[in-house]
Amino acid sequence: MPTTYFQRSGLRRYLNETGEVWLFAQRFFREAVRRPFEWRELLNQCFIVGNQSLFLVGMTGLIMGLVLTLQTRPTMEDFGAEAYMPAMVGVSIIREIGPVIVALICAGKIGSSIGAELGSMKVTEQIAAMEVSGTNPFKYLVVTRILATTLMVPLLVIFGDAVALFGSYLVEHMKGDVSFQLFFNKVFRQLSFSDLVPATIKTFFFGFAIGLIGCYKGYHSRKGTAGVGRAANTAVVVASMLLFVLDFIAVLVADIFFDL
Amino acid sequence: MEPLIHIDNLNKSFGEQHVLNGFHLDLFEGENLVIVGKSGSGKSVLLKCIVRLLEADSGVLEVLGKSIPELNQYEMDRLRTEVGFLFQGSALYDSMTVRENLEFPLRRHPEKMAGQDVESLIVSTLESVGLAHTIGLMPEELSGGMQRRIALARTLILRPRIILYDEPTSGLDPITAKEIIELMLKAQREYQTSALIITHDMDCARVIANRMIILIDGRNYAEGSYEALSALPDPRVQAFFK
Predict the structure, then answer these.
(1) ipTM of this predicted complex?
(2) Which of B94, B106, B162, B163 to mutate to test the interface with A (most CBs of A within 10 A)?
(3) How many CA atoms lie within 13 A of B59 on its CB side?
């Protein structure tokens, strides 16, 4: 039978995989509410996810705040609007730049690590060994990791935002002699409910997406050690793309409900 | 006498490739049944079908009187505690210590502790494989033979009635392989297990087998004791003994 363009193209494979990820997510929700709960492993994973990324997120946040302020300040000065610097930096970091950049860092650091770890467990039959010992490996390995990223990425974003604002303050203090209290007063006076809530909610979805894609790619890793590398790599690529799609959707939804 | 494992007319294909074609076997209490066959003849697929890591296409597959395809997930998990599986590559959890590797299945099946505490069970099981001193080590710190013995201890800790061995001596030097075979026999005596063993190693088969099945093209090609099979003039059978 001659193959159609649809069958030959990557589109079919892409749609198949999208369906499989959807089924994987459905299984996560089913297993997450079913006993027994793996509390110890969940806490362990929360610690690993948080601890693994804390330094990187902190460094990225600091540089993000420094660079954004250094690059924007001359233009603001041209308009005589340097007094608005803290407000401008605060809104842009908390609403958009902070969540997206920190989530991308986490996709690279955590997503690849989960993909490689589960992929390696798959090809060395450790997942099969759990299964034949009467343990549910999906619950132990996947549910705990997805929950850990869903809970920890928002905390990492808050930490990254705080460090970025501190970086911005350092520049403002050096260039404009702005005090710590004045800087943060200006930042928080400008921020409203509609800035904080959507920005925080979307980070839970970012964390979920990073965990989901990392686990999916690792859990379905095949073809030996090369497959492990591919799982880690595609986990980062797909999760990063998904983050931008989710961010776009989050902005659209926030625009409807909060009239941005 | 009721068999512990009863398989009849079992079929399994991957696309166009027919791996098992009407395979049948019965494993009885206290027996060591060895299955030999060339690479790709479907031996590992057979073991994976027995513990439902793979779904068979058709045929009868009963373990301890229960039809494997008809069990729900909870029933299957309960049954799996009665059927140990020793993987070819040991499959120890490499992020856990030896203690945690043994503790892992036990914590999830506390009914298997029979009133004993976790620590004493772990220590006594490790002692039975002669590796109590490795309790705090990581799998990467152990040799291949030690890993295989720890994997056997992890299997034994749930006190299974049946153990499935997938190439238990592959990748080991002859002396370590001999130690593993002796350990398998010791485990059978101490824990009263029955075993289904898949191997290429005819020395292992000679020592351990009560009965053997030669698997060719996914079918039972020949069956009998080691001595009976080695005396068969059939060249396809003889190829295994040369």
Answers:
(1) 0.89
(2) B94
(3) 22
